[in-house]
Every structure is written in structure tokens, then in C-alpha cells.
Amino acid sequence: MTGSTEAAAARPPAAIEKAQWQAPIFAPRPRRMELAALQPSWPLTSISVAVHRNTPFEYIAQAMPAFLAYAGMRADFRYSDYDDSLQFRVDEADDADVHVVWLDFERYRAHLEGTALADWLGERLRQLRQTTDAPLLVANQAGKDTQANAVNQAVESAVAPVPGARVYDRRPLLGALGDAFLDKRLAGIGATSLSGLATLLTARDLGLRWFPAAVRPRLKCIAVDFDNTLYAGVLGEDGPVGLTLTPAHAALQERLVALSREGILLAAVSKNEAADVERLLAERGDFPVRHEHFAHMAVSWESKSAGLARIADSLRIGLDAIVLVDDNPGEIAEVAAAMPMVRCVHGVDPELALAELTIGPDLLAWTGDETAGLRAADLEAAKARQRAVAEAADPLAYLGTLDTRLVFALNPRGHLARMHELSGKTNQFNLALKRLGEAALDRWFDKPGPRAVTIQLADRLSDSGIVGMMLFDTEGDTLRVEELCISCRALGRGLEDLMIATAITAAMKQTDCSSVAFAFATGPRNRPARDWLVGFSGRPLDAPQGTHRLVWPPAGLDERLSAIPVTVDWQ
């Protein structure tokens, strides 16, 4: 065995190695030497970042590799010249995954007043949007005086109408560092007065939070251990009263509650007696986290990986959408070996765990989640619905008692953010897997005719919000369904045929088409969508991807749909 092979064999699993990175990565004052020593053993996904600037960004990029690696990424930065006119001239920028606009707005003070800055920057961003569908991140000015406030209002005004564009707000970092944010001595040396610490923290903010948010979906669930993770102590030995809620543990619990309110599901995965956990949550009124905050309770003596499998099944999500927070390295190693797609946070130090759940990767939503507040309640309603259907003698008749309502919207440009979320995050019922960004979706509406339909779902148990979207194009006498996504929260009610057929029928009425072709692709988890297409058309798919054509309407469709006791409305 070679020396390098021996070294590799001696390395701990990636999840354990990542746990060893937590202290230097999430330190209040990161140290360059410690960060430089971190070399990942796990695979990294490459992204390209185009930087449009009139002031140096290189210092930030040079400090970013360890933070990006912790998020599972590496970045290739491509730079414009120092350009106050913002012409967006960057070599090979057309295929960049993210575009960053990094400006020193002090340079425009004498030239732009009132709304002039917003008008100019807005025009420049719209010009950039014409050349790329990639996410755009525009940094504002780190200042709190009157001039800085005016600049930042202008930046907000310029960015808001541009699809897929976001403002990187630098003011929280300024507020945290105060006078340490700038080091005026550096201005004459490196053309920037950003202090070394501010440079590192900016690199962390971008590398851990903003770049991952730009290129991949947000996590859907945090599965948290109990003993020595949510509190100090062991429930089975100390009992509810003997457990210590330290200030750091209380802050961690408060963060978990805040994330649950933002739409990230909270689950318990604890090796304890279920009755003991129920008593704990009932008796400890000082705990910020309560029983109602948990979307699923996997409390048993089974392995943590088995508990996570139950959580994923109950919440209808993939394991790669879950992060585990656990104090025990052995439990993390077991999960890492059985489920390498699950992200693990070592929770033995509640302050580090809090830092990760505050500034760690995949918790920031690039697109605002319009249904965040509905998700947990909808899952509870789904469980009640499933129990009732299983007990009902006539499931279709039971559906009629729920007062189910479907509300369709044709060409709903105002639903762009939710459409982007459905395209990017839906896995099971995502037929073509196009994963379209906001800019690409916005461009979809520029052509005449039926372009898109969104579908809202509600019944007397819950309001699910917008749960489905379809995108259309025409080719000769064929209506092409280019994108078809239905949230997993809407599945299992037997409404798929009605949702899809209603949308297609409305689109067909605005065309001269006589047939429909569905674009489809084969992914690791979209078999439910492909199975639906086979069942609906009555023919198997003849390739891993392509289009599946059928004459419209299929025989007997109207009769089948009329039997479904659901109210259908249009916006």
C-alpha cells in the first residue's frame, strides 16, 4: 500500500471531517492560516462566477475556498475590467452560473442624484439580464448615513423588477463590526479599504450562504437529536426536570423555531422512549421548541438512519433535502455511511450548531417561499386525510366531503417566484426536470398565446397554496407541455388527471392544436410523474427522455373527470 493510499485510508468519513471544520469555519473571527490548512476530502461541484466591478473583489475571492468547500463547491471567478460604466465585459461570462455586481458607489456620488442612480443601475441590470438567465447578486453600500441610505434605496429599486436578481445587503456585517469594518490604511495599497476581518466575513457570507442559494434548492428539513443537542443532559437518566437549558441551547432552540416558521420542516430523531419525549415537551415550558413545531417525531431505539428514512417518507422529501443535527460522532458516522446524501451538523457545541444553522449553506432561500407558512399545517392535514381515506368505504365520496377547490391561473406572471420554486425543488412529480430559473421563466411569458398555468389547492382541512405549474409551447398542430410540476403535498388525492387536463384544455382553446406532446426526462426520483404519463396515455415511454404525444382529448376523459367531486375556478 502506498503512502498516499494509507493517508486516505486513515482519513475519517467526510461527515466527521466536516465536523472538524466547524470551529475554524464558524469562528466569530476566522483565521486565514487555519482556513488555508483545510483541504476537503469530499467531492466539490464547480461553479463559475462573473464579477462586474469597479473596485477589487479578488481579496474576497481569495479568502473563499474553504467556505465554498464546506458547502461542497469550488468557484472559477471571471472579472470585468474596473468599469464605472458597467458594460459587463467579462471573458466567457455567457455561461457563468452566478453574476455578481460589485461597485463602490462612492464613485458615483457627484454624478447621480435623486432617482438617477436607480434609473441607470436598473437599465444596466436589464441589459445584463438580456444576455444571461443566471442569478444576479448586486451588493449594496455598507453605510448608515443619509447618502448610503439613498444609495441602498436606489439599489433596491433597480434590482426589484429584474427576475432572478437579489440584493446582497452588506449593512448587517457593518453593524456587527462597527469601526473594524474598514481599514483606511489599506486604501492606498490595494484600492480597497475593507478590513481583513470584513473581507473574511464577506467571503464566508457569499461562499456559505449566497452562492449555494443561487445554484441549488434550499434544504427542506432539519432533523434534530435531543440529548446533549437541544439541552445538556440525558432524558432517560436525568428526567425532564434534571435537564439543563443553557443560554446557548436556548438560542439554538429559538433558531430552530425561527427556521420552522420560515418553512423549513423540523423533525425529531432521538434514541429515547417516545413517552419520555412527550412528557419532556409537555413539562418543560421554558423550552422554546414545542411539540407543535415538529412535523415528524422519529423517537425510538432504531438507528438514526432508519429514523431519517421514516422522516423522509412521512414528509415526502428526499434524503438530500435533510440536515441532521446530532452531538454524537458515532451517530453521524452511522448516518454518513448509510446515507451519504444527508448533511450532518455536529451539535455537541450549541454555539457552533447555532452558527451553522444561521450562516451555513442551503438555509437561505434565493426565491421567497410563498407557501412557507402553509407547509407544516398542510402535512398535518395530509395525515388526517390519509387516515380518513383509508377508513372510508368510498374514497371518492370522502373527497367530496372535503370541499376541495382548485384555482387555475393562465399566464400568471405574478406567480413567478413560486413557479421557480416548483421547478427547482419538485422531484417526484417533475416530468421534464428542466429546473428553470426566474429569468428563464420570465422570458417564457414574452411570446403570445397560452404560456403557463399555475394551480392552487385548498380544502376544509388546509390551504396548500400554489401546488402545480405547467409551461406550454406550440409546434404546428401540437401543444407541447414543456414543464409539468406538482408538489408532493398535492399528491395522493387522485387529483393529478383533473389538474393537468383542466390546464391543457384551457390552453388548447386558445390554439388550433389537436394533439398534446409531453416533454419528459428520467431522473432519480421522478418516477411518479413518468408513471402518471404512462397511465394517462395508455402507452409506455419508449426512451429515457423525449416527448410523448397523444390525441386530445383522450377517449373517456370528460366522463372520468366529471366524477371527481372538486370545485374548479379560474383567476
Description:
This protein has 571 residues and is α/β, with parallel strands linked by helices. Helix content is 40%, strand content 19%. It is built from 23 helices and 17 strands. Strands 16-15-14-13-12-11-17 form a seven-stranded mixed sheet, with helices on both faces. A five-stranded parallel sheet has the order 2-1-3-4-5, sandwiched between helices. The longest helix is centred in the middle third of the chain and has 20 residues. The termini are far apart. The N terminus is likely disordered.
Roughly what percent helix?
Answer: 40-55%
Biggest sheet, in brief?
A: 7 strands, mixed
Unreliable stretches (pLDDT < 50, length at least 5) are: 1-10
Number of helices: 23
Overall geometric form: globular
Structural class: alpha/beta
pLDDT averaged residue by residue:
90
Structural descriptors:
571 residues, seven-stranded mixed sheet, disordered N terminus, five-stranded parallel sheet, 40% helix, alpha/beta
Briefly, what is this?
The protein is α/β, with parallel strands linked by helices and 571 residues long. 40% of the residues lie in helices and 19% in strands. The radius of gyration is 26 Å and the shape is globular.
